[in-house]
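Re: that chain you flagged

S.,

Sorry for the slow reply, it's been a week of failed gels. I finally had a moment to sit down with the sequence you sent. For the record, here it is as I used it:
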Amino acid sequence: METSFNTLTSRNSLLTSYVWLVVGLLISAVTSTILYATNLLLYALYYFPYLAIILVIAQFGIAIGFTASMRRASATTLKVLYIAYALTLGVSLTSLGYVYDIGTIGVALAVTSMLYVCLIIIGMTTKRNLASIGTIAFAGLIALIISQLILAILALVFLHVYSLLLVY
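Prediction finished late last night. Pasting the structure tokens below so you have them in one place:
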């Protein structure tokens, strides 16, 4: 009976964590969308040029404060810190709208959200112990980074060779 209680408690804790992750994503997305649509970030950066540096320092400060107080702070305090971090992240991510097409950002958000939902469904419905998947995922991440570096180097080499062929 103790195992089912632990499993039920564990699943409820995971579900609560997932809900808070979605809330943070929505807060960041809505903040970024509002700031982009109204151009408030551009005005703020124009009149207060050090805002970007202050945002980075604030995000690091919130992350360090969150980590340092996780064991002793109340749940409400941690939720407020999390919401503050999501807001500052939304402000920081607004600049992506000025660099990339909004459609591209929307597709990236939709695909990432869909992947996240699929992983939640798999995690909540599987009976297997997924504790060892972290090692496998880390190995896959390293392989992905190495392959991308190799592809980037090859792309530069091929681009150089192609440009030499065009010249001659």
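What I noticed first: The chain has seven helices and no strands.

Talk soon,
D.
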